[in-house]
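Obj.: predict assembly geometry.
Materials: sequence records (below).
Method: joint structure prediction, all chains together.
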Amino acid sequence: MTVASKERKLTIARAMAEAIAQQMRIDQRVFVMGEDIGPLGGVFGNTRGLFDEFGAERVRDTPISETAFMGAAVGAASDGMRPIVELMFVDFFGVCFDAIYNLMAKNTYFSGGEVKVPVVLMTSTGGGYSDAGQHSQCLHGTFAHLPGMKVVAPSNAYDAKGLMTAAIRDDNPVIFMFHKALQGMGWLGTERDAIVHVPEEAYQLPIGKAAVVREGADVTIVGITSGVHHGLKAARALAERGVSAEVVDLRSLVPLDRQTVIDSVRKTGRLIVVDEDYQSYGMTGEIISSVVEQGVMLKAPPQRVAYPDIPIPFSRPMEQWALPSADKIIAAFETMENH
Amino acid sequence: MDTVFKGEIHLTRYLDQQGKLLAPLPDIPELPSRLVSCYRNMVLARALDSKAIALQRTGQLGTFASMLGAEAIDVSIGQCMKPEDVLIPYYRNHACQLMRGLPIDQLLLYWGGDERGSAHPAMGQDFPNCVPIATQALHACGVATAIKIRGEKRCAVTVIGDGGTSKGDFMEALNVAGAWQLPVVFVVNNNQWAISVPRVIQCGAQTLAQKAFGAGIRGEQVDGNDAIALHQVLELALERAREGKGPSLIEAISYRLADHTTADDATRYRDNEELKAAWEREPVKRLRSYLHSEGLWDEEQEKCWQEEVNRMVQEAADAYLAIPPQPVESIFDHLYAELPERLREQREWATVKAMPGGSHHE
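Observations (raw structure tokens):
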């Protein structure tokens, strides 16, 4: 058997741009709006090539007016278009949140299902490169908490393309969160494991389906975006001590695939949840509740490795100290061992 | 049909590109010596700028926003403000902040990622840098409201880029400033670029100054590369504000000679010919030519001052690099007046379990 399968490794940024371009070619309703998404191709590279192929009418650089273009996306989507809008940093949501959680998320409900609002809101998350407290948050919990929107967040390029294609075709508003450190842009730090083989043809990944990205028997590590990569590193380190860790990539926050997590914890009896978002009232608590509510027997109290409830510091050593890491996951596991 | 409103926007300019005087000097006390001081600060700003970029490129400073091309605007603001006025800056006002008393090493400390650089006592009531776009315009209105309620003869000055004027926050700030006749001056540094988005697709209006009309306040343009024109326009606007005669919007036309920040690469979207042409209009050389022609500045002074600013900036950089970092656990300390129990637990967990440093991106 030959192993000469053709690898086509892409970054998440390129995978997103490819998915968008493919849908734009077959669906005239799809267009893109945002700041610096035109000739620059997006500050994080995820609209590169679109302006050259589709022109300024369908790839629209906006004024710095998030309230205007987020509200306009709701209007255009309600009128039959399928806009993709980029909120450059998720931290900027405060400027345009009324359009997001009061209108985009609720208009379908308010209209008794008559009005569909198929917006894809793509937005960058995460820190690790010293961009301080207003440009480094994840805010997973903030978006996942509010009803009416789907929320996805890929950890690698294959998932990014499949989820983006699914998001564009979805009749619901979808928040597509991409972690900056996984984009394959050197200055943001590069996670090599996020750059994977991506088929050229269009394909969809089901929104709301988690993936077991590493099988194991002793502990379940649940994460999303950067947390998955920390989990995989921790799992490799734990393996050297003879501990077999299973790693679950949630991929979607809404809908949340609780069953995959529950099945895994039933097998391992131990649960660590990793999240770069603030610890309290967030994803970590939701996952642990979901498992405990089902009466899954645990060998030790579940642990969470999340960002503390403090702003993200500009200072590089401070930020690195406070962010989740493989080391912290291992420390959490040791706490369980000593229980 | 009756005409119920007419508006005009005037552009003030005193110096041409070569630094030749186009009109008689405005009547400002001690203008020649103020222009020399202005020039010296502009040269310092430029030296600081290149040092900061060098530090960033060698991993000794965080992401830095260059102010190359905005020196005349920033230094003129610094010269026209009185100590008791309040600066509500954006993130490209380094020169003004230095003139307001912030030591250079403290400014570098901030851009090096240490929040203590925003907390120097010399800053008085001035605000720390505002990174979100346009929110500072609203804070300036709050400051001006406080000044007005207390009946003080002071004013608030805030600066914003051309891109920021597209924000609702900016329009609401103008509106409330007009409705309440607040002692505030809005300065737009229209440097033609908002990261990769050029001024022409930022706004359909011919000038940004005319946004003032919708708010019922004064609006005007000034050549942002012309220190004399800036002094004239700013002196008047600030004094009007202090005297309770209302707010002003000043659109200063400049050019962003640098990348947006050190995280940007403008060669990917900007024509080099346009940049070359902009260098012909730049403010530092223009003012130097004028001062030379008036006998207010000579080659010897130039040489001495260049050496002096390089020494000042190098010493400040050395002092900055020698400042010991804060203990990492201190990130928990300043969020609440008292440390809540839950954060105390999180700090303990982080301190005991985290090991030295994270390993987010090895």
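Conclusions so far: The two ends of chain A are 48 Å apart (CA to CA).
To do: check interface contacts against the pulldown list.
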